[in-house]
Amino acid sequence: MATFASGLRMPFPRYWLSGFLADFGDGVRLAAFPLLAAQLTRSPAAVAAVTAVQGLPWLLLGGGLGVVVDRTDRRRLMVTVDLARAAVIMALAAAILAHGAGLWLIYLTAFVTGAGSALRDTAAVTCVPRLVQSDRLEQANARVIAGQIVGNELAGPAAGGWLFGLAAVLPFAVNAGTLGIAVLLLLTLPGVFSAPPRDQGTRDTSLWHDFTEACAGCGSILTCGTSRSWPAWSARWTPPGSRCSCSSWSGTCTGSRAPTACCWPSERWAGSRPEASVPP
Fold this sequence. Notes:
- By secondary structure, the chain is mainly α.
- It has 2 domains: 10-187, Up-down Bundle (Growth Hormone, Chain: A), CATH 1.20.1250; 207-261, no CATH class.
- Helix content is 61%, strand content 2%.
- The protein has 8 helices and 2 strands; from the N terminus they run H-H-H-H-H-H-H-H-E-E.
- The protein has helices at residues 2-7, 11-40, 44-70, 74-97, 103-127, 137-166, 170-187, 207-217, and strands spanning 243-245, 250-252.
- The protein has a two-stranded antiparallel ribbon with strand order 1-2.
- The radius of gyration is 19 Å and the shape is globular.
- The two termini are 20 Å apart.
């Protein structure tokens, strides 16, 4: 316990714990939503649609999330998203207690929380280089991804099903609680997550312009209003060092043929990857 407490004095362990709690809550909610829908309808399609709606924001908004992250303070963005998701989930929990939760309310909550998860997860990966030195970046990224897998795909769904068996409202109450703790942990971190400044010679473009450019340039399945078609990811190759904002990452491409080759914040306006601002 003493070792754990001393470890939390460093910024990265607190950041990791914040992300794990948010991902764990996502996993709990992911398992509970279909079970809640199954209490209200006997239609298999209606129950399956709840899970589909939670993933829909990745399809609709994925290509431009990196642009949003690049232009905002990432800690403020994650805090705002987590607070908004906690408020929406608490509203659903209140409706469950009042026996007023209908399918449309479940679908709406699933979509809003899914959009928040997509935005938060995109911002979360791009923050790691601000908290660790370059020689520890790979290890830190591995820990973040491991926490996402364990929280979102293993421990979270298992806990969500168990909690729902005790009471339908419990998974959503736990999810709101984990998000609240995640916010408190984020607020303890140093202020090193501000958006990078633009180069003086860079043309000032709108967020929508950059959003559509990101969708087309990184092979999003949506064209986002542009005339460019979707290229096959397996056929694309981005030269090492080039900049992009991919559907789930925003960063400097390493030359892989996969869209997840972008492995650290692009710092598109500053033109270079910053060193860590605080010790690991």
